[in-house]
Amino acid sequence: MNPSQGFAEQLRQSCITDWNACVQHRFVQEIFDGSLDDAVLRKYLVQDYQFINRFVALLGAAIASADVFAPRVVLSQFAGMVTSDENTYFLRSFDMLGVPEEQRLTPELTAPTKAFQQLMHEAAQSLNYANCMAVLAVAEGIYLDWADQPAKKHLPMPERFEHAEWIVLHANDFFRGFVGWLRGELDRIGPTLDETQKAEATHYFQRAVKLERQFFDHVYE
Ligand SMILES: Cc1ncc(CO)c(N)n1
Questions:
Q1: Is 3 exposed, middle or buried (0-12, 13-18, 19+ CB in 10 A)?
Q2: Is any atom of ligand 1 closer than 6 Å to the C-beta of 204?
Q3: How many domains does the chain have?
């Protein structure tokens, strides 16, 4: 690892192949050009709603384990967005795609969804701020990087809200600010960690990046 980079960028560089595979994924190409198959989108959203469930619990653990008040405020405001605008996006998309109640609440979980839930559960249970922030920085950092990429900036938005809104939820000033803040927090806490804690947070980060890639891949299987 290159110590002249901050902790956040060192972590990202340590899994750059999988990170970039997510940013350039077929799912991303197809959501931007509106060609995403409804069956693929439906599988993705049904599984992702179960991801979000644990993700909000992980935000709670990060709020609980933060060292000072300021990060609790930022994380709480982000939790507010996920449980309002983002939650209603899922519900409106489920309505549009005709997803029944049982698929919204208790679908059969796929292997990547289960593994991601397990990872977030472990990070939350550790009640260790660095571990929680490592997983959050992956989940939100990859989503910012695919949704907000310069190459896509001048494309017209896809027509359907199920496509367009999923992009805009991850490419707006609030989200940019939040992800920049997450990266800054990792840079702030990285140098305070001993080698054991640093290795643990790194492991969480790397597992999360692998799972992000598997999650995108598996909606096409
Ligand atoms: C799998 C996955 N990773 C990250 C995000 C962004 O919150 C999401 N919605 N789903």
A1: exposed
A2: no
A3: 1
